[in-house]
Write a structure and sequence with these properties.
The complex is a heterodimer of chains A (about 250) and B (about 260). Chain A is an all-alpha fold. Chain A has one domain: MetI-like (MetI-like fold). Helix content of chain A is about 80%, strand content about 0%. Chain A is built from 12 helices and no strands. Chain A is globular. Chain A starts with a helix and ends with a helix. The model of chain A has no long low-confidence stretch (mean pLDDT about 90). Chain B is mainly alpha-helical. Chain B starts with a helix and ends with a helix. The chains are: A mainly alpha (about 250), B mainly alpha (about 260).
């Protein structure tokens, strides 16, 4: 078991770190501060930030509708939410292009724009927040909300003061997972963004291009930056969500 | 509003791809499906599933039992490492493997001297798929292991069962739905893996081209029928996965506590 883990995960990660470290801090910095790399990293982080904000709102809303509302076909819709997890990422890209691409019936053309990047990321990260909020909402006792309402609180106040604090840890942990996924996403973006340097080239695509051009040091350096960013956000938000869960209890 | 969002982002695009695929009739679909490259890509994807899923299932169960039933130093670290693949971009996974097993990688010379090729061939693709789908079985099995507790296992041990007997007769039957759920997720991930496989395989048509890579290839060659057909093939597999997931969640929820 140890061998499996070493051969598969530990050695490769060690090789990545070693490659990024060859040549020392100066070489690392030179690779990372390459203007095209900077633009790609910025776009990845920026688009991911936008996407997780949208997810926080709409994921919670979707979970709310699935738990609190009744409508025909609810079970099918509920099952469909997981589709982005089951659908191969390339297919997600093709599917979005078929509808929102050039000549599509929607009458818009998002190909080769940043909108396409954001849309692809929204698609693949859709389930994270909804699926993490849903079980918490299901367990939530309605009596607190009723008590607040009977004491004269409006619906918005009830949501803000009672429901939201209870859901916050779940929302945050869903956001953390979405962010980690969005920062590294590749398959759904590569077809529809056009990968134009300085415009729609995200970090993972930049890494891919460097590997194809045999610039392994550059690829490794940017990989380490993205990896560290994902892990930092994951760690920070996990800590935040744990603290929220404790204080809510 | 939530439903509208779902429809725009999820429902409409997926419905569209089915429509575009079948608008020229079934004959065109069949023709696109049965080109040698399309068949080879499908076969290669199935082959990867057949190799990776058993490996990761065995590993996942073993790690789950180790993490849940044993207390040892470095347990938290092991748990972190098992989850690591979820936080790493598939492209980075591919790059890391190239750095170890590629021609210029750590073991490149040694592998070359022994006539072994990992990168740009099936072993590398197996490793890429195994890396990205590593956590699924363990993550689905651990909560189930916790829930079933150790009573039955202890009873078996006091009745004289050895470790293997306890595992096969008591533990495995109790956790089987958790394991199967993990297997379903692993299968879906391996079938759809793109970024890591893209780097590691070299994308050689009719050789190391999996079904998702085939989709990209057709798309970039403006063969939309080919791309759409292969996409629908993968989408149907995804829908089957979805159905399996739903049946299994219902099964786990309705399970009576032991």
């Amino acid at each position: 078991m140890g061998i499996y883990l070493s051969v598969l995960v530990l050695l490769p990660i060690a090789a990545l770190l070693a490659q990024a470290a060859t040549g020392g801090a100066a070489a690392f910095w030179r690779e990372v501060s390459n203007p095209e790399a900077v633009a790609a990293i910025k776009l990845s982080l920026g688009a991911s930030a936008v996407v997780v904000s949208v997810n926080a709102v709409f994921g919670t809303l979707i979970a709310w509708v699935m738990v609190r509302d009744e409508f025909p076909g609810k079970r099918v819709v509920n099952a469909m939410i997981d589709l982005p997890f089951a659908l191969p990422t390339v297919v997600a890209g093709v599917v979005l292009l078929a509808l929102y691409g050039k000549g599509g019936p929607a009458g818009v053309d998002i190909t080769f724009t940043r909108t396409a990047v954001v849309l692809a990321l929204l698609f693949v990260t859709l389930p994270f927040v909804a699926r993490s909020v849903q079980p918490v909402l299901l367990e939530l006792d309605g009596s607190m909300e009723e008590a607040a309402a009977s004491l004269g609180a409006g619906r918005l106040t009830v949501f803000r003061r009672i429901v939201l604090p209870a859901l916050a840890p779940a929302i945050i942990s869903g956001v953390a997972l979405s962010f980690a996924r969005a920062v590294g996403e590749f398959g759904s973006i590569v077809l529809i963004s056009g990968n134009l340097p300085f415009k729609t080239e995200v970090g993972s695509v930049y890494i891919f291009n460097q590997v194809e051009n045999d610039n392994l040091p550059g690829a490794a350096a940017v990989s380490v930056v993205l990896l560290v960013a994902a892990l930092l956000v994951l760690a920070a938000l996990t800590a935040l969500s744990r603290r929220g869960a404790r204080s809510a209890r | 509003m939530a439903l509208g969002y779902l429809a725009l982002l999820l429902g409409a695009p997926v419905a569209m791809i089915f429509y575009r695929t079948f608008e020229h009739g079934l004959a065109a679909v069949w023709e696109a499906l049965s080109t040698p490259n399309a068949l080879h890509a499908l076969w290669l994807s199935v082959e990867l599933v057949a190799i990776v899923v058993p490996l990761n299932t065995a590993f996942g169960i073993a790690v789950a039992i180790l993490l849940e039933r044993h207390r040892f130093r470095g347990r938290a670290v092991l748990s972190l490492i098992v989850d690591l693949p979820f936080a790493i971009s598939p492209v980075v996974v591919g790059l890391s493997l190239v750095l170890v097993y590629g021609q210029l990688g750590w073991f490149g010379n040694w592998l070359d001297a022994h006539g072994l090729q990992v990168i740009f061939s099936v072993p590398g693709m197996v490793m890429a798929c195994a890396f990205v789908s590593l956590p699924f079985v363990a993550r689905e099995t651990i909560p189930v292991l916790r829930e079933v507790g150790t009573d039955a296992e202890q009873a078996a041990a006091t009745l004289g069962a050895n470790g293997w007997q306890t595992f096969w007769r008591v533990t495995l039957p109790a956790i089987r739905w958790g394991v199967v759920y993990g297997v379903v997720l692993t299968t879906a991930r391996v079938l759809g893996e793109f970024g890591a496989v893209s780097i590691v395989s070299g994308r050689l048509e009719g050789e190391t081209q999996t079904l998702p890579l085939y989709v990209q290839d057709r798309f970039e060659n403006f063969d939309t029928t080919g791309a759409y057909t292969a996409s629908v093939e993968l989408a149907l597999l995804a829908l089957a996965t979805l159905v399996a997931m739903n049946l299994l969640t219902r099964r786990t929820r309705s399970r009576t506590p032991v």
